[in-house]
Amino acid sequence: MTDNNVPGPDNPTPPSGQPQQQPPPYVPPPAEQVPDPNAPAKKGRGQMRQQRPGVTQPRPPTLAEQRAREAAKKAEQERYLAEAAAYEKKRKIRKRVLIGGGVTVGVVGLVAIWYAAASPDNVTAQCTQNDVVVDDDYCSESYYRSHGGYSSNGFIYVGGSSYRYYYGGPGYSVGQKVSGGSYTLPKGANVTTKSGTTIQRGGFGLKSSGSSGGS
After folding, report:
1. Beta partners for 155?
2. Phi and psi for 124 in degrees, rounded to 5?
3. pLDDT at 209
4. 212, 194 in Cβ contact below 8 A?
5. How many CA atoms lie within 13 A of 99 on its CB side?
6. How many CA atoms lie less than 13 Å away from 148 in the CB half-sphere?
7. Mean per-residue pLDDT over the chain, rounded
8. Above 70 in pLDDT, residue 50?
9. Which residues neighbour 125 within 8 Å (Cβ) at sequence distance 6 or greater?
10. Looking at the predicted structure, is the pLDDT value of residue 201 above 90?
11. Which of 82, 92, 162 lies closest to 127 in space, CA to CA?
């Protein structure tokens, strides 16, 4: 058995007056650390933090982001105002067109009414005696006056005989019985005889004229 305190090749004798050096104490190696899954992750440069609903607070926008949002909002407002102005302009133009169209239709309607009134119907008058067609001379003013006759209430009296005009109908020859017309003078119509004598001039604002009328 060897004494460790005896000087030898492995235990040199220390110099006189100095204590003998002792070896360092034994230190076991550190145990391997297992990461805790519940521990918060360390924030490193260039790393993204884990977002937790209800816990993580949003990052406030930067000055550049705020300016970009304001510019986008202003552009959206300007676009909305431009579209509203264009729509209002189209609406006014359409309203003017509709009003103009209504005025045009109204004027056309008035012109049509006036034209219809100014363009009366043409009616033929035939001299009759007891519903039978006779010569137009018996009803002419020049004839019955030259023979001492007269006109009263649509009848023409000459030498004890009476005559009167028959208006309308298909037109008959002398000796035929009339039908399909009337003994009443039509208002607003141009009334002439077959021989060309004018009994009444019709039309808008024109008064009737002639030698005799119907009743």
Report:
1. 152
2. -95, 135
3. 43
4. no
5. 6
6. 3
7. 75
8. no
9. 165, 166, 167, 191, 192, 193, 199
10. no
11. 162
The residue count for the chain: 215
Six-digit token string for 176: 């035929």
Integer Cα distance of 66 and 170 in angstroms: 94
What's the token pair of residue 177? 């019985």
- What whole-number percentage of the chain has pLDDT above 90? 16
Cα dihedral 188, 205, 127, 196 sign: negative
CA 166 from centre of chain:
56
Give counts: helices (H), strands (E), the chain.
2, 8
- Is the Cβ–Cβ distance between 214 and 197 less than 8 Å? no
Average pLDDT over residues 7-20: 56
Give the type of residue at 165: Y
Residue 43 pLDDT > 90, yes or no? no
3 by DSSP, 3-state: which? coil
H or E stretch including 74? Answer: helix 63-118
The yes-or-no verdict on residue 9 having pLDDT over 60 is no
Q: How confident is the model at residue 202 (pLDDT cuts 50, 70, 90)?
A: confident
Task: Tell me the one-letter amino acid at 21.
Answer: Q
pLDDT at 101: 61
